Amino acid sequence: MRQNKMILPTLREVPKEAEITSHRLMLRAGLIRQLASGIYTYLPLGLRVLKKAEQIVREEMERAGAQELLFSALQPAELWHQTGRWDDYGPELVRLHDRHDRDFVLGPTHEEVITTLVKQEVSSYKKLPINLFQIQTKYRDERRPRFGVMRAREFVMKDAYSFHTSWDDLDVTYKAMYEAYNNIFTRLGLFFRPVEANAGAIGGEGENHEFMAMAEVGEDTIAVCSHCEYAANLEKAEAAGHEAAGLQPSEEIAATEKLHTQDIKTIDQLVESLSLEASRFLKTIVYLADGEPVVAVVRGDHDVNETKLKDLVAATTLELANDTTIERTLNAPVGFIGPVGLTGVKIIVDREAAQVTAGITGANERDYHITNVVIGRDYTPDQVADIRNVIEGDRCPNCAEGSLEFHRGIECGHIFKLGTKYSAKIGATYLDENQKSQEMIMGCYGIGISRCLAAIIEQNNDESGIIWPIAVAPFHVHVIPVNVKDAEQVAIAENLYRRLQAQGIDVLLDDRDERPGVKFKDSDLIGLPLRITVGKRASEGIVEFKVRKTGESVELSVEKAFEEVTGLVLGQ
């Protein structure tokens, strides 16, 4: 490609709307332009990277035995009504009407569509297992689109779905997808970790993993063991049990006693006022699960993990109850809620809060708390379970030797087992060996391809611009004649351009009549892995060869520079 004719509008100034490095660089390097909030046009340079990432995904999926197809992005609402997700999915679902006033959605995901197709086309166990994937644009009406293509309303995704006759069969494909995803993200040049995760809005049963690109701007917190390979999203992470806080069980625990705590409502205020550790307190929080109140109790130094709580009560929606709802439902003032004496409401206690043997909690009476509270004696919960967020320093649940450390990550992929959630509702069945009808068991495997571009840039940049890994670079090598009016420089550059292209190497030839400084700044900004500069020693057959990642620059003969490029690109 000749740069003089290419739509490659680089920017010197940092765009005001760009908050993170990848967004700034994608705009400055001319990869994307914003059309509307969360909606972007991919310019030629950006599209080349996107297509290379897609091809890596495609190759590894096909190598793992998956077949590619392509669905419509426009989906009839009837399918979403059939699974119940028309109401459950929420305002992120982009809904529209056709001229006949029929309801449609722009697909944020394709479980309904793929399950309907397989229901129509596969009827016998002899056709299973099957794994189908597509690479397509998805649509989600994000409440707050931000960080460029990291969280956009329109994005490119690879989604795959597998269908099986048994859970054991699903396990085989799940492991193959796990391996394929490791291969994909390795080839993309990402530093990543597979972590245990929650299935989220798509749902499912059994194990599932997110593939996280490690980056400080990541929206997800990952708990990682300092000793073993355990890693989990904060929504899923657990900790090994702690010793009981407060008094030890062997000690005699006095009866409860009311404590006057005027205008002292928060844990921090209680800690300061009573000079006790936060772990001695029982924090009581009221939620509405599908509109019904549920009370969660955790230690004062812990926070409720709302995802764990939502899953535990099998709720579609979970939200904090407002003050009016709390006072009307529990007949207790906000800030002084406690589990003792509460009736007519489900109480769930975190397993470590249950170990507090002489706790302090709200008395359900304004300006009063209760001391010496003991679970089982003073109150009986409906359930004791892990409903808290882990904290740094917690012991690892896997090895119990290491401690948990927190890191930030960008979710680039997610694999999980759907079970029969969709096949049962849509009626995707097959006839087994005995001609009996059985529901298909499903797996689901997604990769946010456009998000991967942002993750790659977050991990590969410096003060001058992007540093593309060779596998996804829009061009492998940048050939720059310093002076396009120098016939000898132009001749050498043109010769290298043609010869490298003939080897299947992607070359960008900077044939612009610009100052050398402008060319070099643009070259560093767009971040092609290799650069050959044809300059003042062209008459001697000498050029400058530079590796963008290391900054290493050496003078070589034209032929040696050609060999270096072909060796690095074709030998990867």
UniProtKB/TrEMBL annotation:
InterPro entries recorded: aa-tRNA-synt_IIb (IPR002314), aa-tRNA-synth_II (IPR006195), aa-tRNA-synth_II/BPL/LPL (IPR045864), Anticodon-bd (IPR004154), Anticodon-bd_dom_sf (IPR036621), Pro-tRNA-ligase_IIa (IPR002316), Pro-tRNA-synth_IIa_bac-type (IPR004500), Pro-tRNA-Synthase_IIa_type1 (IPR023717)
Statement: the UniProt record of this protein carries the keyword Hydrolase: no
Pfam family, one: tRNA-synt_2b
EC number: 6.1.1.15
Protein localization: Cytoplasm
Any one Gene Ontology molecular-function term assigned to this protein's record: proline-tRNA ligase activity
Domain Aminoacyl-transfer RNA synthetases class-II family profile: 33-469
Catalytic activity: tRNA(Pro) + L-proline + ATP = L-prolyl-tRNA(Pro) + AMP + diphosphate
Family: Belongs to the class-II aminoacyl-tRNA synthetase family. ProS type 1 subfamily.
Cited function: Catalyzes the attachment of proline to tRNA(Pro) in a two-step reaction: proline is first activated by ATP to form Pro-AMP and then transferred to the acceptor end of tRNA(Pro). As ProRS can inadvertently accommodate and process non-cognate amino acids such as alanine and cysteine, to avoid such errors it has two additional distinct editing activities against alanine. One activity is designated as 'pretransfer' editing and involves the tRNA(Pro)-independent hydrolysis of activated Ala-AMP.
Subunit composition and interactions: Homodimer.
Name of the protein in its database record: Proline--tRNA ligase
Species: Tumebacillus lipolyticus
Classification lineage: Bacteria, Bacillati, Bacillota, Bacilli, Bacillales
Gene name tied to this protein: proS
